[in-house]
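User: Predict the structure for this protein chain, please.
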Amino acid sequence: MGFTKAGKKAGNTGLSLLSLEPKPCPGISESDNARVGTYLKRTAAPGGSGHALGDIAKEMFNKFFSKLSKKKQNEVLNAQLHGHQWKNDHQRLRVFSTSCQKVTPNLPPNRPLPCKSCHKILTSKAFRVAIAKPTPLPKNQIYTNKRFRIQCWVNFTAGSLDSKTSLKLKYVNAP
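Assistant: Here is the predicted structure, written as structure tokens:
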């Protein structure tokens, strides 16, 4: 990728050769749009802008998703995952394009900006719609998709617990 250490100065500009090397793409974060962090804390989805499960099921098997066997449902879920335009990094609160260029020019003294592919996601209508959705109220969390319910419940409640409160999980809806 061209990430090397260099101790020499580049001419008399005072910039080290290291600063002229491309940097790893940082993806999209709250630094690019303040709503990105809220979006990533609100959703447990692995990515976004894929086709709807029902549409994929109809195309692949000519049936409703709910009428498919578990094996075929998993095939549809895999197809949806491969169709995502971006992937969510919940741990680092970043979003990356599935076609991320992996590197971006280093423009000192600013932080590295997202690569062109990630920037395209940032400006896409689908992403702007996704990050604009509000976090559901606690009383409405019951309507969260069952595939994401446990992760969302932990994310929503863990932030409101104090150090003396024990966390007890109910695995009633676990897949």
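The first strand starts at residue 23 and ends at 24.
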